[in-house]
């Protein structure tokens, strides 16, 4: 398999975690979204029509969107299963993953932040305030979900799921942006536990071949 990825993309980070957890060997094909490589005509036409990362190539099959990719990997390699089969637990895990991938991440990804600067002409201070506001809103919701579901050490107890795969990159981004996460101790406990796991450690941005300090 090949993965078109950017080291600091939280969506790419999710897929790297899933691939490593499942023991799937893959080749990283870096796409520098900071300089617009994801918008190149050849990339959009032949790799990912949504002009984004990640994109997975499995022989002739090409797929974008991190959650779709992880679901595909779950069907290809059943263990460890990241999206549970039990109806109630599956729904809870997807609820958690959607909160991060649909409510938090889209408001804080690079293209949104860049639009704020280039089109709306906000100041760096206003951009940071925007980021921290939506991180605070989203993480407060995450923490409330964990209060309901979390007995540790993972989001849903002893079982590692898609929820953890989504939470860890989101927290990593928030920490990189100097957000105060102290009000979310359950989330931080999961994050700190996860980084001790080899798959989560190997997927970290600074471990990637395209890492830029």
UniProtKB/TrEMBL annotation:
What Gene3D superfamilies does the entry give? 1.20.1050.10, Glutaredoxin
All residue ranges annotated as the GST N-terminal domain in the record: 1-81
Cited PANTHER family:
MALEYLACETOACETATE ISOMERASE (PTHR42673)
Report the Pfam families cross-referenced here: GST_N_3
Q: Name one GO molecular function term.
A: maleylacetoacetate isomerase activity
Q: Does this UniProt record's set of keywords contain Cell membrane?
A: no
Q: Where is the GST C-terminal domain?
A: 86-211
Q: What PROSITE patterns does UniProt report for this protein, alphabetically?
A: GST_CTER, GST_NTER
Whether Nuclease counts among this entry's keywords is no
Keyword set, alphabetical order? Isomerase
Q: What is this protein called?
A: Maleylacetoacetate isomerase
In terms of superkingdom, the source organism counts as: Bacteria
This entry's Enzyme Commission designation comes to: 5.2.1.2
What family classification does the UniProt entry report for this protein? Belongs to the GST superfamily. Zeta family.
């Amino acid at each position: 398999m090949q993965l078109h990825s950017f080291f600091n993309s939280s969506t790419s980070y999710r897929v790297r975690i899933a691939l490593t957890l499942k023991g799937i060997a893959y080749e990283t094909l870096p796409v520098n979204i900071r300089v617009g490589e994801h918008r190149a005509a050849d990339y959009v036409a032949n790799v990912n029509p949504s002009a984004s990362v990640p994109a997975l190539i499995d022989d002739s099959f090409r797929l974008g969107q991190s959650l779709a990719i992880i679901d595909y990997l779950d069907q290809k390699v059943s263990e460890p299963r990241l999206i549970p089969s039990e109806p109630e637990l599956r729904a809870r895990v997807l609820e958690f993953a959607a909160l991060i991938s649909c409510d938090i991440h889209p408001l804080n990804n690079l293209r949104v932040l860049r639009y704020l600067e280039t089109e709306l002409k906000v100041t760096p201070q206003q951009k940071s305030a925007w980021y921290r506001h939506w991180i605070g809103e989203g993480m407060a919701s995450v923490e409330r979900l964990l209060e309901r579901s979390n007995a540790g050490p993972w989001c849903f107890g002893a079982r590692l799921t898609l929820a953890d795969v989504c939470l860890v990159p989101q927290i990593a981004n928030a920490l990189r942006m100097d957000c105060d996460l102290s009000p979310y101790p359950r989330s931080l406990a999961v994050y700190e536990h996860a980084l001790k796991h080899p798959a989560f450690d190997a997927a970290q941005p600074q471990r990637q071949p395209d890492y830029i300090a």
